[in-house]
Amino acid sequence: MNFKRMVIVGGGTAGWMAAAALSKTFGNKLQIELIESETIGTVGVGEATIPAIKNFHELLELPEAEFIAAVHGTYKLGIEFENWGKLGDRYFHPFGPPGADSWAAQFHHYWVRAAQRGAAREFGEYSVEASLAHAGRFGFNGDRKPNYAYHFDAGRYATMLRAYSEARGVQRREGLVTGVQRHPESGFIEAVILESGQIVAGDFFIDCTGFRGLLIEQELQAGWEDWSHWLKSDSAVAVQTESVSPPVPYTRCTARSAGWQWKIPLQHRVGNGLVYCSDYIEADEARQQLLANLEGEPLTEPRLLRFRTGRRKRQWVGNCLALGLSSGFLEPLESTSIHLIQNSIIRFIKLFPAEAICPVEIEQFNREVRLEMEQIRDFIILHYHVNQRSDAPYWVSNREMEIPDSLRHKIELFEASGRVFRELGELFAEQSWVAVMLGQGIRPRGYHPIVDQATEEELVAFLQGVRRSIDSIVGSQPGHEAFLQQLQQGVASRQA
Ligand code: FAD
């Protein structure tokens, strides 16, 4: 292997995830150094995840209970959206599939027929994950295990990954990178220069410097594709509060006048924030709106964050790869940023250069990232665009904006016949699109003809059967908090 010295610049979630995965995969074949600057600090948010994070932890061989204990984590079964389609609306985007499918038609086709005849309950009531979430329960009893992800403390997550990486030989260096040395012909980065004058040389560089994109943009000018005409939010104000009730096993996303508010329950506190568009609300008003809608006492001063939605045109340039916020940003509505970091790390390991950097491999990498980000972008735009709200200009403008053709096609297909197809390699499965499209108020005009093979009575009995089985699954699980306590006790007794 010609690439022996890897330099990671940045020690936020992205930097330490990369250090952990690379040190685990390559062991002492790769010399890894991570440079971070305490004077700059990390973005400090990013606490909700999606189920695929479990694959990353499997790669690291991190035991779940120990991980949850280290990051003061909780379980997440999905997201509850409030006020999105209309003020007063509420729906759940669960991580698992609803009801039971036949091979030709998914469950929602049966639900659509029943709903057209007034014989169905709310769609979310046919989801195991949504029902568990609303009952405040979580557990693994029985055959039908829930699909889940985690909420965690971002600072503790980075600390845990740092300890993991340092135990596998990663060297951490404190310092501010102020310059870059490049090869005069190839343009490859040869070294970074610190404020102290130290020079850190490497064969490959990973830019995890956050929004500033120190190497990938300031030095290599990879270019930026702006998506803020579709995803208008450009700011967030975040605050932590004390817990006033047991942690629920789901994230809450409540639409407000010019954005939306998140609520992420951890074991020891709650993470809150308002994501908003500064064209429609001033920073001070946004701060007031957030503070007026908190449940517990604030533990921190509200913190303002500014961002741009879009992607780096090339995430990998020469011998430099951008990960995390330096590679692009999609707002946190569906908690996809940490997932994008994880996928880019795994993709990079799969394409890790053997003897020399190969342009066609770089092209493959950049192409996959572009497609992945565009698919997620469309899914997030869906939430904004399909609304019937007329109470605030922000929502009207989201409804009236032009949307990407790829998204328009998906919405039109679903409106016509309830059909949804997952694109090749797409992160969000059909069930996610269905949950959000129904939740935002789309009612398909048709459904799959196979559904009509059932008589009216059979259809009603089928739906009742699904409900009964969900009730029994929910009834057999402990409360979420009790489950976490049990997990903690197990960890404590193993450590004793
Ligand atoms: P940062 O955390 O900004 O880290 C940058 C690092 O680079 C720091 O260590 C800094 O010291 C270092 N650095 C910068 N410049 C230099 C320099 N010159 N020299 C040396 N070191 C330098 N993602 C999710 O998956 N789920 C969520 O719920 C979620 N919520 C979010 C909410 C908001 C409001 C925002 C803005 C983002 C959210 N994200 C979420 C995204 C998530 O926070 C990030 O993807 C994640 O934290 C990774 O950040 P990072 O490591 O790329 O950058």
Care to describe what's here?
- The chain is of the alpha+beta class and 496 residues long.
- Helices cover 38% and strands 19% of the residues.
- It contains 15 helices and 21 strands.
- The protein has helices spanning 13-26, 53-60, 64-71, 107-116, 128-135, 154-167, 214-219, 283-292, 337-350, 359-385, 393-400, 405-417, 430-439, 456-475, 480-495; strands at 5-9, 31-36, 74-76, 78-82, 90-94, 149-151, 171-174, 177-182, 189-194, 199-201, 204-207, 224-226, 235-241, 251-256, 259-265, 270-276, 303-306, 310-312, 316-317, 320-322, 328-329.
- The strands form 5 sheets. A 7-stranded mixed sheet has the order 5-4-14-15-16-13-17.
- A hairpin with a 2-residue loop joins strand 19 (316-317) and strand 20 (320-322).
- Helix 3 (64-71) packs across helix 15.
- The model has no long low-confidence stretch (mean pLDDT 96).
- It binds flavin-adenine dinucleotide.
Q: What Rg do the Cα atoms give? A: 23 Å
Strand fraction band? 15-25%
| Small molecules held by this entry | flavin-adenine dinucleotide
Mean of pLDDT: 96
Number of helices: 15
Spans of at least 5 consecutive residues whose pLDDT stays below 50 are none
Widest beta sheet: strand line-up: 5-4-14-15-16-13-17
Largest sheet data: 7 strands, mixed
Share of helical residues: 25-40%
**Secondary structural class:** alpha+beta
Shape by Cα distribution: globular
Number of strands: 21
Q: What is the rounded distance between the termini? A: 42 Å
